[in-house]
Amino acid sequence: MTNYLVVGAGLFGATFAYEAAKRGHQVKVIEKRNHIAGNIYTKEVAGIQVHQYGAHIFHTTNKKIWDYVHQFADFNRYTNTPIANYHGEIYNLPFNMNTFNKLWGVVTPEQALAKIDEQRAVLHGKKPENLEEQAISLVGTDIYQKLIKGYTEKQWGRSAKELPAFIIRRLPVRLTYDNNYFNDPYQGIPIGGYTQIVEKMLANDAITVETETDFFEHQEEYLKNYDKVVFTGMIDQYFDYCYGELEYRSLQFETEELDQDNFQGNAVVNYTDAKTPFTRIIEHKHFEFGKGDKHKTIITREYPKTWHRGDEPYYPVNNSANNALYKKYKELADTKAGNVIFGGRLGQYRYYNMDQVIGAALVTVEKELD
Ligand code: FAD
Ligand code: UDP
Fold first, then answer.
1. What is the mean pLDDT of each run of 10 residues along the chain (370 residues)?
2. Residues 100 and 161 in one domain
3. 155 lines ligand 2 (CB under 6 A)
4. Domain for residue 180, yes or no?
5. How far apart are CA 81 and CA 67, in angstroms?
6. For the chain, what is the domain count?
7. For residue 172, which ligand has an atom nearest its CA?
8. Can you spell out the DSSP letters for 54-90?
9. Which of 246, 313, 329, 361 could be cross-linked to 15 through a Cys-Cys bond (beta carbons 3.0 to 4.6 Å apart)?
10. Concatenated DSSP letters for 200-232?
11. Residues 239 and 351 both lie in one domain
12. Probe target for ligand 2 pocket from 151, 162, 184, 250, with the most ligand atoms within 8 Å of CB
């Protein structure tokens, strides 16, 4: 039997804790926030599950992970169909025939493709090397200007020319009239919210949980008292930023309770112009098909901001400079960190979705426990 300390009660930490306890190990979970579940934390207000850290839609191609997460919640059939608001003009996302029709009046896939081909000619066949080139190559210059450039540069706080191409490849481009934001065969929102998933994962007598507890306040003691540590905080902070800071993007959430039933008619509306300071507004009740108080709705505006020490590091900025720096920290982790395992979005410095975090935690479980 091993005595584990898990740092961070997010999805990675909770998955590891659940699997370790199931195998008869003792686990202590510490979490610096005043609640469990990390960024997937949801809280019920006026009968509505409020996503406290931005819209979370579970989607995966992996049947095993879909089945795995169903141990802890039932899911509704929510399909993400966000819309973009560009100076009051509304477009469907992801980029599909509805978008192309509204923008260009084209009706058939062939006409849409011809228009995209005409616009991507500005690249002269060059292989896309950054987000701007990748976007133009996928959908042409009009969509890049109206729906991508402003949003992206607000979100990441830098020119789209300085961002990696993979970020925009997260979004499908379709020559069909299909507004589903994801290609994955499995998608939904847990009925009753996400927090229950982590609650159930941690509901084992072999697991104790302590919130409002920061690892760095008693680091030496923890390292001495536990056989192994699973650390899901920032890897650069763990090593006291000895090679310098990795970059993150932070966010500020502004949540409002409104005395009306329906504010925007959709769960997610992106504001893709450069001027509007927020990137999106989510209206939480639409994740659950109009559940909740009929006279109230709750909306959250999401303002991107530069991360400084002490802010919440929501997104790793995986450009080549940061990835190279992460590699140095990873080498340190592999050679000098003794009994510490690093995991999750911050511990592995990866733009992981929830299903990928569960997948990564299960890989760690397999290596460590099986
Ligand atoms: P976290 O949830 O960040 O958990 C890490 C925990 O460790 C945190 O609770 C933190 O407080 C704690 N911690 C850190 N340092 C310390 C310390 N020193 N001591 C104690 N505790 C510490 N994924 C999807 O699949 N679909 C989506 O629609 C989606 N939308 C997203 C929207 C936003 C705005 C964001 C930011 C992310 C989104 N994600 C989405 C990604 C998803 O949130 C992550 O994949 C997942 O939550 C990561 O889990 P984690 O355990 O790695 O990290
Ligand atoms: N994006 C965009 N316009 C949009 C939505 C997304 O340009 O209306 C770009 C932007 O660069 C963003 C990336 O696509 O960072 C990935 O979008 P996704 O919705 O996956 O972002 P997340 O939900 O992870 O913030």
1. 98 98 98 98 96 98 98 98 98 98 98 98 96 98 98 97 96 97 98 98 98 98 97 98 98 98 97 98 94 93 97 96 98 94 98 98 96
2. yes
3. yes
4. no
5. 24
6. 3
7. 2
8. S---EEES-HHHHHHHTTT--B-------EEEETTEE
9. 361
10. HHH-STTEEEE-S--GGGSHHHHHHH-SEEEE-
11. yes
12. 151
Among 153, 171, 250, name the best residue to mutate to test ligand 2's pocket (greatest count of ligand atoms within 8 A of Cβ).
171
Question: Would you say 245 and 21 are in contact if contact means Cβ atoms under 8 Å apart?
Answer: no
Please report the pLDDT score of residue 265 as a whole number. Answer: 97
- 102 located within any domain: yes
- CATH assignment at residue 206: 3.40.50.720
**Alpha carbon distance 342, 348 (integer Å):** 6
> Which of 167, 248, 272 most suits a substitution to test ligand 2, by most atoms within 8 Å of the C-beta?
167
Same domain for 234 and 350, yes or no, is yes
293 three-class SS? coil
Q: Which pLDDT belongs to residue 174? A: 98
Whether residues 150 and 277 share a domain: the answer is no
**CA-proximal residue: ligand 1, atom 47 (nearest):** 39
Atom of ligand 2 nearest to the CA of 135: 7
Residues 237 and 316 in one domain: yes
Is residue 178 assigned to a domain? no
Tell me the C-alpha distance between 269 and 260, whole Å: 18
Question: Which pTM was predicted?
Answer: 0.97
CA of 143 to the centre of ligand 2 (A): 13
Check whether residue 155 and residue 90 sit in a common domain.
Answer: yes
Q: Clarify whether residues 233 and 323 are in a common domain.
A: yes
Render the burial of 230-267: b for 16+ CB within 10 Å, e for the rest.
bbbbbbbbbeeeebeebbbbbbebeeeeeeeeebeebb
